[in-house]
Amino acid sequence: MSRSIRLAVIPGDGIGQEVVAQGLKVLGAVLPQDVKLETKEYDLGARRWHATGETLPDADLESLKEHDAILLGAIGDPSVPSGVLERGLLLKLRFAFDHYVNLRPSKLFPNTATPLAGRPDIDFVVVREGTEGPYTGNGGSLRTGTPHEVATEVSLNTAYGVERVVRDAYARAAARPRKKLTLVHKNNVLVHAGHMWKKIFDKVGEEFPEVTTDYLHVDAATIFFVTQPERFDVIVTDNLFGDILTDLAAAVTGGIGLAASGNINPTGAFPSMFEPVHGSAPDIAGTGKADPTATVLSVALLLRHLGYEAEAARIEGAVAADLEARGTAPRTTGEIGDALASRVAG
Amino acid sequence: MSRSIRLAVIPGDGIGQEVVAQGLKVLGAVLPQDVKLETKEYDLGARRWHATGETLPDADLESLKEHDAILLGAIGDPSVPSGVLERGLLLKLRFAFDHYVNLRPSKLFPNTATPLAGRPDIDFVVVREGTEGPYTGNGGSLRTGTPHEVATEVSLNTAYGVERVVRDAYARAAARPRKKLTLVHKNNVLVHAGHMWKKIFDKVGEEFPEVTTDYLHVDAATIFFVTQPERFDVIVTDNLFGDILTDLAAAVTGGIGLAASGNINPTGAFPSMFEPVHGSAPDIAGTGKADPTATVLSVALLLRHLGYEAEAARIEGAVAADLEARGTAPRTTGEIGDALASRVAG
Ligand SMILES: CC(C)[C@H](C(=O)O)[C@@H](O)C(=O)O
Ligand SMILES: CC(C)[C@H](C(=O)O)[C@@H](O)C(=O)O
């Protein structure tokens, strides 16, 4: 039986182009011969916006739907007003394709630099809600630009939206050796949304008696990220808290150059999208300094999502081995990609 | 001329009682003979709520107004539903007394344990907005407890509120040797509030040409807190981001046992309130394990606010000397308080 993957590719801005090229190189090297890989590249991001004023036209959105998955590099450029590409392209994709599970694993690999003394044993996964909370774009401003301006941001949360992501997180926790799930919110201040999250978290927990649970306020969680990160196994949290915590998690596990993510629609109704957590880093774009490892690890998440578990594990093993074996001399984006591609081809 | 301080004291819950006792001990020891200190203690917190159902009755609020400042220990207890005391007492005080500058200095003292390798040189101040943002309590829930529940949290931001705290932060930055101010927000996603903050930040900056400015998204800021905390001098940010960042700041500078804060109303219209950043820590209440240093440093902020600069500096010097001189044997709450009191009395 011949298998195929229809992959949409959005390299995006800055280093996005460079890291995606390496991700595709490793993907090509790891896939079994009988899997037919069809890729289609989309010109979306700052260049397109400057040329046409478009961020994500309907035609592109429709065409993206005809794929099994999306690989995205990075979105954002200083030449574009803050928010235009983030809201008009990246978040539009996450919302249009109902990516309610924003999956962000954090692992301290051997031979990587962590800013933490004592190198704690870090291996956890953040399940960040991806379609609600303060990210809906709800809100506005009145008397804009005057001394009487009032600006609001509305965090929208539904039982439907919270329950599905919480259940997904429990299932992931149940499948891991430690079987521990921590809810992070701020329910002593954001009482409306926070209490709803907590109630649903407790209720869904009844379906998973084997999972140990815990609750932390987001401020306290940041403390444990630096003093006791080994206490975490799976974390479930809202869209904004998840954004903040996963950058911090990336920092303590050796940097944003290694942090992968998946924007997942577990129902399969729409293609899921995989991207490094890092941004477009315009300051180092074109210099060959970008580390493609986060993108390569995102490709592993993509393969696992499509059912290629063995290939996903092979990539993750290759990354661990590559980090372990590397010397102290800096390598270019392409050199790291080559090293990983040859390891997975093995 | 005889001087006097009318101090309202709210020990609150858990270790609040114990650390406030030491704060008062040090305050008594540092004050010049001619300063008359009148204290009035308020029974507010979990005990009062259980006894009477009250969190902060109007009579107490009125009576608190008749003071020059408030010293608060900690609020919160697991026996009270999450949010009741936080919203009904602590935040009610911050809002009623218009504490728009929530001042939180972070300094890595000698001979203290930081989780960061390499002990970076950390000495910054977070100016957290204290009366707006996601903390207003605005929002609600519909079809509560049903599968159709919708819960909202509304972040309210006004040009008036943002401008006054931003100007205060510039003035603080201008008075420090490095003269650097960083705005932290998330204006690529929370575009309504975020753009207003950024516009006002840039505008007010014209009045302070000597101050170098910088902008960071909150997620990126957490990365720098652990990889390059020495880059920060003064940070200004919204209520929720400030809450999160200052716990992280406390963690990287040796823990929440050393983090002081002031809820300041710079106009003097209402008494300002000083409190350690830590909570009531019910797990160690009554064991003598609580470190009163954060409260003692909050007393220094209180004295500085009331114009007792020499006494404030004496307390800060005593804390630095005490940390430097201490051995490895654990000390009780009272022993630390005694050591600090005898140093400032000097
Ligand atoms: C670029 C930005 C909109 C995005 C987010 O806030 O989700 C990024 O920080 C991320 O974490 O993927
Ligand atoms: C107890 C809680 C309401 C409070 C806050 O969120 O402001 C605390 O975390 C703080 O930082 O003072």
Structure description:
The structure is a homodimer of 346-residue chains. Chain A is an alpha/beta fold and 346 residues long. Chain A has 2 domains: 1-106 and 259-346, 3-Layer(aba) Sandwich (Isopropylmalate Dehydrogenase); 114-253, Isopropylmalate Dehydrogenase (3-Layer(aba) Sandwich). Chain A contains 11 helices and 12 strands. In chain A, helix 1 (16-30) links the parallel strand 1 and strand 2. The longest helix of chain A is centred in the last third of the chain and has 17 residues, at 309-325. Chain A is globular and about 50 Å long. In chain A, 57% of the residues are buried. The mean pLDDT of chain A is 97. Chains A and B meet through helix 4, strand 6, strand 7, helix 5 and helix 6 of A and helix 4, strand 6, strand 7, helix 5 and helix 6 of B. Strand 7 (150-158) of chain A pairs antiparallel with strand 7 of chain B. One 3-isopropylmalic acid sits between chains B (76, 86, 90-91, 243, 277) and A (188-189, 219).
The Cα radius of gyration of chain A reads 20 Å
The major pleated sheet of chain A works out as: 10 strands, mixed
The residue-averaged pLDDT of chain A reads 97
Number of helices of chain A: 11
Q: What is the ordering of alpha helices and beta strands of chain A?
A: EHEHHEHEEEEHEHEHEHEEHHH
CATH architecture of the largest domain in chain A: 3-Layer(aba) Sandwich
Count of beta strands of chain A: 12
Termini Cα gap of chain A: 24 Å
Structural class of chain A: alpha/beta
Shape of chain A: globular
CATH level 1 name of the largest domain in chain A: Alpha Beta
The pair of chains with the biggest contact is:
A-B, 68 and 68 residues
CATH topology of the largest domain in chain A: Isopropylmalate Dehydrogenase
CATH homologous superfamily assignment of the largest domain in chain A = Isopropylmalate Dehydrogenase
Bound molecules: 3-isopropylmalic acid
> What share of residues of chain A is helical?
40-55%
Specify the oligomeric state. Answer: homodimer
Parts with pLDDT < 50 across at least 5 consecutive residues of chain A: none
